[in-house]
Amino acid sequence: MPSSLRHIRFQSPTRSPRGHHPGVFGLANALARDGRLSPEEWALWRASNDWYDAHFPNPATVDPTVYDPAVNPGAAAWFRPTATEALARVAPYLRILRDHGVPCVRLESADPGRIVYEDAYQVVAVGPAGGGPGREPDGGGPGREPVGRRST
Q1: Average pLDDT of 102-129?
Q2: What does the alpha-carbon distance between residue 56 and residue 120 come to, in Å, rounded to a whole number?
Q3: Distance CA 102, CA 31 (A)
Q4: Fewer beta carbons under 10 A from the terminal one: N or C of the chain?
């Protein structure tokens, strides 16, 4: 019987020039990398990234191929519905994005696709068959972006 619990992902509603929907962490990291954050926003972004880095596994460190488009095309990270503290800590990122006019949507799915990585807080999934929202590669989610998720 399918689970009624739904995995959660925050991502851009539009595709990037590379063809994927960047996740919430990638969107905020882009603002920081481009120097668009105020000193207060930068401090909040940095502290939030440091918290995630200290408390949650990096899927790409555990399995360097997890976001490799040749191995796992369309891999995307989703929070487990039980990762309540991690989910609560997304709010500062969403505020920063909102304040900069960067759209970010919340997706929920009981079946995010074929699981290629999982831990207590997150899954990285490919699929489901036929694609759909949130199925594009970016690694955004509680797991790291394929390259330096939570740093500039």
Answers
A1: 91
A2: 9
A3: 9
A4: N
Cα distances (Å, whole numbers) of residue 55 to 49, 85, 150 = 10, 10, 13
Residue 58 CA to residue 60 CA, distance in Å, equals 5
CB 112 within 8 A of CB 123: yes
Distance from C-alpha of 4 to C-alpha of 55, rounded to nearest angstrom: 26
Closest residue by Cα to residue 79 from 127, 142, 5, 4: 142
- Residue 63's Cβ-side half-sphere holds a number of Cα atoms within 13 Å equal to 17
pTM, two decimals, is 0.80
Retrieve residue 53's tokens: 């880095």
Indicate the helix (H) or strand (E) that contains 7. Answer: strand 7-11
